[in-house]
Amino acid sequence: MNPATENILPLSQGTAAPTIIGKTSPATAVFLVSFKKWVRILMLLAGALQLVFFFDNENLFAVSTVLAGWFLTDKFVLRLSYLQNYTLSTLLLLGYGITQFLLPTVFTLVEGKALVFNLLYPYEVFIHSILAFLVFIITHQFYMHWVKPESLARRAVQGKLIRLKFFKPPTNRELWIMGFIGIFGLVAMYFFGNRYSGVEDSERGGAAKIFQSLKPFAYLPYFLLLRPLFTPRPERFKVPTWSILVYTVVIIAIGIAGNSRGTFMVGVSTAAIAYFVGLLLGKFSYKIFNFRNIAMASIAFWMITGPLSDLGVAMVVVRGQRSTASNSELMSSTWEAFQDKELLSKYKIAALASITDWNEHYFDNIFLSRFCNLKFNDASLENSGIIGVDERMRKFTVDRVFAILPGPVLSAAGIDVDKDFVVSASFGDYLYFRAKGNSGSLGGFRTGHFAGTGMAAFGWWYLLFLGIGVFGLFFVFDMFVLRLPATATGGRKIYICLAGLLSCYFLFTTLASAESVASHFSYLIRGWLQLMFLYWIVYFIARRINLIFKKQY
Which end of the chain has fewer surrounding CB within 10 Å, N or C? Predict the structure, then answer.
């Protein structure tokens, strides 16, 4: 039997449910304890400095709220038993706590701003933020009470996944093959006319949808560096550092050509979040604060806040050309804009001084804006306050859930939904349209937020729907995690399916960035099933190619 999978057997063959056996080693919790300690200090220090430099009633309320939010994170999320028994559902909560409380508090201070910078409705923003988090935590407590790690439902689903080889770790060569399949999807998506990141499904061809769905697999080679997360007994091998660096440059080049900064940002973020999970679980050495790692972290921080941030701004500057320019022309224009620091500076100033009635500016750093932009919340609450609870907004929200289903299914069920209309605009667009009455705003794909769109559709009842939807997410994602018995030979306790690890970016950001309460229901109906099916197909292809390669060489 393959030593990498000898502890992974179908549950139907008489094996007991995977569980954690024995007491936790003190070394396992070292990073978690240190992380909690230093983040407490950081939050208190950043909060105090916020009030020293930017004291007013609004900022006082905001700082008090984020400190309370991090207290809840520390108390009800960052617990080793939760991380071990409910790994990915706990990551959902942790991602919310970090992106809504920790990062805004620290990095607004780094940029010399108040926590409430450019927020028109700061009280409402932070009230909805903390109430939503309380709903998530309470829902998670109910979930853990009703769905035990050894529950029959969990065992049944995981047994099927084991038999379908979802938990069988790919070889190094298979990971590279799967990565290049993802690269093919990226190239096809950007170079064959599908470069429009704001275009929804109704305007994409079937082939274009397939190419887009292959995008996450382009990031699989990064997991060569993270084998302990998905392999029970990873074999020692030389880390392909230079190969990964070259591969990263290729992804960045494709992203520039396709005018999509998310192409390279999401990949690196996914791997970084997965590594963070490994640190919390004790999979990787907690002794990360040495000269080499500090130097690498400093270089990475400089790259993200300097060159890569400017590159992202340059891509936005030339975005208006992507419907007419070729990919090579886009790359050339982006490079020229990147070198013109005066142009980039003027663009940032213009974004800050924007007088339009839709303003998304919160962080100067364009990458931080994707993780923790509280202005999306603010803008949505502003527009929901104009229209109140709106019947048409409610219908749009419900129709977006049904629109996930294929047309024939809707027809057979007698459900009347204009799919072309509801997917041709974002929730932010439709809320803005209802508030401002400008039909030309539809199709602009403004980023909405569940607080504002939820209030406009259901009033405060949106919190109930938020809890119901996230309960389903908790169950689905924890299916990706097996708990293996500890053995005398060092069998690993936590083993995460690669399909689950590929979702780390989504897991880390979705609770905070969901446009609507409907987003979670849509993912439960289709999103995770599509991910599983595509992973199975891509892995099957990679295994066949690998077998052919072995026979020939």
Answer: C
